[in-house]
Amino acid sequence: MQTLFDQKVHHEVLRRLDSLTENSTPNWGKMDVAQMVKHCQMPLLVATGKMELTEKVGVLKKLLLKLYKPILYNDKPWPESVTTPKDFLVTEPQVFELEKAHLKTIINEFHNKALNMHWPKHPYFGNFSTDQWGKMQYKHLDHHFRQFGV
């Protein structure tokens, strides 16, 4: 699985982001391109400790999520029908160019923290290694870029 901490992968992700336009349409799902770009910022913000999740998860659901955890960073692409956590839902209209620029900044900040970042404990899944964070963030971005055909 590719990682957002690899320089070539990082550049490819930014190239794919740059190829999105406000007229890009989804191959699946309910979000438009501006909402998707806003949504993609959120897991990166959680990873860097800049966003806290508010959805309460019970003990049983946490146990089930721990079983699901390896799917977040393994080599298999996420299915199109993955349910979006409530904290990551974006339903309000967004300004595409503004959110695209913000996502690019957040991707670069995340990429630059590979060697010096103390990773916060994920509120649902527990601890991730640097390698797992990099793979998971790449996999999430790749999922949505494929959603919009880039």
TrEMBL record:
It comes from the Bacteria. This is DUF1569 domain-containing protein. It comes from Gelidibacter salicanalis.
